[in-house]
Amino acid sequence: MTLPEKTVERLSEYRRSLADCADGGITHIFSHVLAGLHGITAVQVRRDLMLIGFSSDTKKGYDVRVLADFISSILDSPVPANIAIIGMGHLGRAITKYFNSKDLKLKIIAAFDVDPAKVGREIAGVECHDMGCFERMVGELDINMVVVSTPRDVAGELVLPIINAGIKGVLNFTSRPLNFPRGIVVENHDITTMLEKVAYFVKEGEE
Amino acid sequence: MTLPEKTVERLSEYRRSLADCADGGITHIFSHVLAGLHGITAVQVRRDLMLIGFSSDTKKGYDVRVLADFISSILDSPVPANIAIIGMGHLGRAITKYFNSKDLKLKIIAAFDVDPAKVGREIAGVECHDMGCFERMVGELDINMVVVSTPRDVAGELVLPIINAGIKGVLNFTSRPLNFPRGIVVENHDITTMLEKVAYFVKEGEE
Q1: 3-state secondary structure (DSSP) of residue B107
Q2: Which of B3, B81, B132, B135 is the most buried (most CB within 10 A)?
Q3: Which numeric CATH code is attached to A81-193?
Q4: A74: distance to nearest CA of chain B, Å?
Q5: CA pair distance B123, A126, nearest whole angstrom
Q6: Do B198 and A187 contact (CB within 8 A), yes or no?
Q7: Cα–Cα dist A60/A28, whole Å
Q8: Can you give the residue ranges of every domain in chain A?
Q9: What is the mean pLDDT of the segment spanning A90-115?
Q10: Secondary structure class of B165 (helix, strand, coil)
Q11: In the CATH hierarchy, which fold is given to the domain comprising B5-74?
Q12: What is the ipTM of this complex?
């Protein structure tokens, strides 16, 4: 059974909090404490965990490591996912460094750009390839997801190469929404929209 | 009437597409064309515009500039919003450059960090202040929103200074969810969660 989007987001967040707890020597956590860390209700936490079939009747709360591992068994693919980033400007470099500095199952293993000054160099710890070699390199490196951090006006040109290369998941940070056929998962996350949204609700709160 | 979150997101996206159209010399657009740009249905577009009270009975579709201006009148605050960014690492710098390079009503006008090597310098086009001066500078510069791009382990320490400074909106890019009292709008957008979510739905699609 495929989980709802919001549940997946929360499970990813719970797992990071649980890792923090484990690092801090905490072995057990109550649902209302986990809920408090995320600004939600204990009912929501219990509902999410019920949905993935996790139950715990201990008086001490959930076992932190057991729950973290259980969430990983739900979220993670049995084979490691290789990610490429397209567009090695400031945002691309920042995302790559930020992401690869974490100890995750997911790794950005290659970058693509059209700028001859970047191609062939190692940037933010990954080799930057020419976008012209995208389809071939995706096959060679067994890449199945991409992060798009190009300028807005070229993002649209990436749709066909991404489809042709057999990419299965796209995280798009440009302000141009990208549409893909069924079978390719896409998340469009434009920073501008996020900030305009905050601004709107601030304005509404003041009226 | 306060609009639903998803409607606000789509309006922000429509506005950017309309600006593109206007730049390209397009004066009118049909709802199904606008919908196609965003991978949604024309019914959704018409529902969103009905919700904000925009109607157009022209045979040529919506007037691109009129609609863009109408959306701006809904989304934008009459006074310009000043934004500060906390944490001037790679991600902070990338966000600042990306954001301020666009011609938006919202501007990142100041940065805050604790690193003495950054404080007092202009980074990514904005002056970087010491986090110790945060509350005073927020008042002086009339800042009402912040973007948080610090390391995860210090994000929690920012909650009280943000509340005390009278900040009204927070866009949090760290992987630690931040909770604020009612009256402060917060959007938690962790890149890790976004990518783990794409990975999960890719995995589900393959099973």
Answers
A1: strand
A2: B81
A3: 3.40.50.720
A4: 8
A5: 25
A6: yes
A7: 6
A8: 5-74, 81-193
A9: 89
A10: coil
A11: Arc Repressor Mutant, subunit A (1.10.10)
A12: 0.89
